[in-house]
Amino acid sequence: MRILSGLxxxxxxxxxxxxxxxxDVTSPEQGTEGQRCFxxxxxxxxxxxxxxxxxxxAGGSDASLDAAADVATSDATIGDAPNDTTLGDAPNDTxxxDAPNDTTLxxxxSDGMPDAPRDASNADATTTPDAAPDSGTSLDAGCVVxxxxxxxxxxxxxxxxxxxxxxxxxxxxxVAYGNYGAQDGVCDILYDQGEVGVWTFAIPAGNIVSATVxxxxxxxxxxxxxxxSAYSFRLWSGAACQVDSVGQLPHGMPFATRFTNWVExxxxxTLVGGTTYTVTVLNTSMTGxxxxxxxxxxxxxxxxx
Length: 305
Fold this sequence. Notes:
Strand content: 25-35%
Shape: elongated
């Protein structure tokens, strides 16, 4: 599942510089035993695509997905989302290239990625369906500089503005990966250990009394054995490193289709009319190569009176 086209990505912050542009690319190793499947979830003759890897499975391609658990490779790229869907080129897909210092996000956590922060505790639970988990722990210090966007399945569409009773909402419906989204069947995906999503909002001029950023999120649909406690992220509201979140999100359900258990996480935002505001999320999970988290949409909800 590596179909990429369109924009360029620049990324820095403890993981080197990553630059990527261009069209569709397939690794020369894809399709061979122990390597990634082709983008259409197939492999060379005699091999079966299970959980994104080409393996020899007794009984053919109908063998259980559990056989994929035996596949591992230290040179694997960042884990793809489940292979149950066919994905066309998303409008904002990009490809990660090797940074000049040879530090790439394709390596496993021990191959150059810094350890993810793990010392934050959970705060109050959000009021979302199915007893949604809390919105993380606020941070007053210790955050690194806001990172740049790093990832293959990340979009940043223009927001849609709608009026509310006391202000307005800027809504971004994310579109980079062709599955899972609640309303439109698409979303953005952050893979394990180091991918960064950045979503930019042009705030209209005018008085602002208060503002809140809201994200609709969930973790992968359980193809791995990692519990929710293994997943975490760090969020920046504007330039302020606001929260470290650990174990907040459930595995997406139902498997391999539009999720119905997205969780809404809300954080305060300090905004000034007529300026640009960014929401940044860094995946700090410790799940190996197969774990990922998805973002369906991002809202900035502004009160003007």
